[in-house]
Amino acid sequence: MKNFTTVLKIAPAFLLASTIIHAQTKDSITKEKKIEEVVLIGYGSKKKSDLTGSVTAVSEKDFNKGAIVSADQLINGKAPGVRITNNGGQPDSAPNIRIRGGASLSANNNPLIVIDGVPIDNTNPAGLSNPLSLINPNDIESFSILKDASAAAIYGSRASNGVIIITTKKGVSGKLRLNYSGNVSFGNVTKKVNVMDGSQFETFMKEYNPLYLNLLGVTENGSQTIYNTDWQNEIYRKTVSTDQNVSLRANLFKTIPSRFSFGYNNTEGLVKTSDYERYTASVKLTPTLFDKHLKIDINAKGLMSDKNAIDEGGAIGGAIAADPTKPVYGSDGALYQSFNNYVLTGSTNPLAILMQRDRPEKIKKLLGNVEFDYKMHFLPELRAVLNLGLETSKSTIREVYGDNAFATYRTIYENNLPVSGIYNPGLNYAEDQKINNKLLDAYLVYSKERKGKIISNFDIQGGYSYQDFVNDGTKDLYDYNQTTGIRFQKPLGIDNFYYNHLNLQSFFGRSNFSIMDKYLFTLSYRADGSSLFRKDKRWGHFPSVAFAWKAIEEDWLKDSKAFSDLKVRLGWGRTGQQDITPVAGFYPYTPLFKPGSIQYFYFPNTGLYTALPYNDNLTWEKTTTYNAGIDFSSKSRRINGSVEYYHRYTTDLLAKVDLPPGQSLTNEFVDNVGTLTNNGFEFTLNLVPVKTNSIIWEINGNIGYNKGKVNDLEGVERVRADESGLPGTGQKLAYHAVGQQPYSAWVFQQVYDNNGRVLPNVFVDRNGDGLITDADKYYVPLRPNWTYGFSTTINIYKFDISASFRGQIGGKVYNAILPQRGYTEASNPANTPAVYNVLNFYDGSADPRFTGKTELLSDYYLSDATFLRCDNITVGYTFDKLLKARIKVYGAVNNAFLVTNYKGQDPENFNAIDNNFYPRPRIYSVGVNVDF
User: Fold this and answer.
1) pTM of the model
2) What is the domain extent for residue 290?
């Protein structure tokens, strides 16, 4: 393991190989595919050989396998330059998706998601962490990932971070087909935080903190009993989950290809009570009318989910810190509590945090659209397309405390002495929310194929798009009567209601043409208007141009014995960014006011109203991308791949900056500041080293490199990265600083003695002024520059064995548990008559040289985040004709193993801070897929 990082750094070429062996029948193995792949590119499609932009297509045969809950899990590690990170193993954890590193600082860096022609809302409904959980993974046919601006600019303002187009499965025009797929999975924790057990902790307290030995265990009738409780075991569990799906494909009335599906998923989280249940249903109808001149595509997808949300940070952090010498239950059979001022995030009994509160979060969501594609009778080359879409959701959240919940306990005082107590169970919080996203696309497409002509293929399109978003909700807070203990709703105020409205309108056009079927050109333009900006700054303009040269069509290559395809691509384009609502709200350019509280009543009978921060000079963030690529395929088609290089330059960066003093507002607001550059390359390689009548072996792999740099911030040296907050401190670990990679830690350099042992709170005086100040800090990039993915499957007759891997080279992770539980005085009471567990000093998990609290912003707490993860291993067998059906049975392991030098829980963390991390489970599953 010691040489693992070195191996990755000196031999990245060996890690770009990805192996996928596809299950094929004996007959199909001997036949070449005659149908060329068609790839969706936004408002249309293209043959893969005619693409001019950077587009990665991932089809069903390439998907990750096993226990899959969300669509993002299907493609993790499958596309170069695409990094998908979930902050933990929650059943519905939200993915952070970055295509080529992201193009912004404070604005949204996730790509635009388009499902069956409808761009979905980036605002998650209350209670829904993952927007991709809307769609059942079993309904998905393919993904198209648009990575450069020449491919994505047709989506304009929403495409600066790339576009992921999801296409669902269609109906059939032949006989009825029924499919059932289902699995049962079993999960367990792979690694826990290494804290002390009861006996170790007792020994530790005797050695380091003997003054508090009387607080250990339970003392009754003068006798002290020391327990040995593993609190992490108490909050974690072995899980049993299931996923069941049925789909029907038919030709209704012999004229309407149709597909109907229903799915059910019940996933138990590793942390007790964190359950997730989901029902999905979908309908897809594709009738044609008027002698096939009118094609209609009808899609409807429904979701109902029910999640019991837990205070996972409190429970997980509490399990790490709780005194292991205390029991789980008291002598009365109730959850043990050593003192009465229990709070929900307390650590005296972590299990109580989970068991004494329910927070059901229920979501109902519908996504649907109807697309009319009419080919003119009088001019068949001209088509008119109208797409009407709707995405709507309703969320209901209720937080309820149970009877005798310690979180509601209040001590009652008489004459300043505690004489009794009262519990206040009942409703504590309620939220109801509705979100509506309406879409209208209308455009014309003219296409003409001219074989033998100089301009051999030509198409042009232009149209209008309208999208409207409304987010409407209420929040109710509850309190308790100190005398009766009855809970009541707090008085309504301005913060109990919210109504947000965003409108986007666009005009767009695109033209593709080829000269002699060798030289391909694509031109596109989009103008977007957003209600987030004031009228004179409302419109952004986003052009692009791309060129491809089919070198294989040249006379000197046509008869090549080495290549069947060779194409060179060049692209340039500009995209925009306006998605700043999470940090600036929906009205960032408008001065808004809210009532001040009573302490602001400076003048008699006068209420002072406080203005919220606003910036009426905000404008579009703009990203310009240059892209160059080569696609190649061997004559035998058993070797193919692509190489890409890109340069991306973002101006008018939308970022949170400090507000000048004297504004009577908050201390920061959103502004356009500076520029950002990203440079990188990607390499994809596909091989078929073995291909016989009974065996086929296909190898696919990818590796990507991206390095960003903040060029300037208009006079500001650095801006804070909000997502990098250190727990309980108010400090930020990461900043976006001029001359540095975005999201770099700003830390002191730790000093070590001649034997390599750490010297606590001793740092390098980097500027030599004899003082240790912020001027001595330096920047350490946290995000990795290298990412890769590879997988392998072997198919022999009817058996198939596959495995998928992915990882990163470099990057850093901040182990936040070390400064919290990694010093000897961390066990001592803190305003409560209780002691707290610490990391295991006896096996090297922490260093006893650290006796008290230390400087948090030290590179001592940063570790190399290089890792290799085996995402999936699957073994399957297919019965071709069993009970008149094709049946595949399989067993799988997800998150099979992790190879890393990191000593903490998990190096894969989007914000690079390992703190109270919800563990990723190892999941064993068995399943069946039946086609009738």
Assistant:
1) 0.89
2) 4-192+236-310+359-743+782-811+865-931
